[in-house]
Automatic annotation (TrEMBL):
Class of this enzyme: hydrolase
Nucleotide-binding among keywords: yes
Name of the protein this chain belongs to: ATP-dependent RNA helicase
Assigned keywords, A-Z: ATP-binding, Helicase, Hydrolase, Nucleotide-binding, RNA-binding
Species of origin: Chlamydomonas leiostraca
Domain characteristics, as noted in the entry: The Q motif is unique to and characteristic of the DEAD box family of RNA helicases and controls ATP binding and hydrolysis.
GO molecular function, one term: RNA helicase activity
Family note: Belongs to the DEAD box helicase family.
Region of interest (Disordered), residue spans: 94-136
Gene3D superfamilies, alphabetized: P-loop containing nucleotide triphosphate hydrolases
Domain Helicase ATP-binding: 1-89
SUPFAM superfamilies (alphabetical): P-loop containing nucleoside triphosphate hydrolases
Pfam family, one: DEAD
Amino acid sequence: RRLEAQVLVGTPGRILDVMGRAASALDARRLEVLVLDEADRLLDMGFRAQLDAIMARLPRQRRTGLFSATQTEAVQALARAGLRNPVRVNVAVTSSAAPGGKEGQKRKLGSKEGAAGAEGQAAGQDGQEAGTQKTPSSLRISYTLVETEGKLDQLVRFLQLHGTTCKVMVYGLTCACVDYYALALARLGPKLLPGVQVQALHGKMKQSVREAALAAFVALPAGVLLATDVA
């Protein structure tokens, strides 16, 4: 006997496609909870029209959770359009002070704000500490400002220094971006990056290919992993 699915997880475009092609199998009128995670990223990537179309097909009586690392005007507009009497919950992440600081001192790293529907219940109180995240004292953070046309050259120079002595992870914004840099480094490798092993990993690859790429990177003593941030 086939069991009905209780949870549907997907990107806005795919969920809207399923709702259109399998309307008889997916009865949206029975939906009780809607979760919009990383709402600011979804809006930045141009999914507002799909989100509006999805919410238009859902029952008005539902619980909705909208989570966003930032509260932009676009996110607030989405909350006004899709939530009824929303309750805002602010989550602050703190970290122990650096070595040498006073014992018990906390340093605020940032905040993540979310809005829950009127029917939802907020766990904890506003401002209550949600957890403690420790930053390694030996961690070094640096950055370089590079024009778009100079990114590949800068990456090659960086990998020439570090690609054969340690493991390097390079994040790309999209799957196409990862594929582009993987192809570019493969073509430049024999002359400019001898000995540098490069693996690519993103969500559009088959699961078996992704697992093989990750296993290969783990087994390498040094090398490069190109990946999207959700791979």
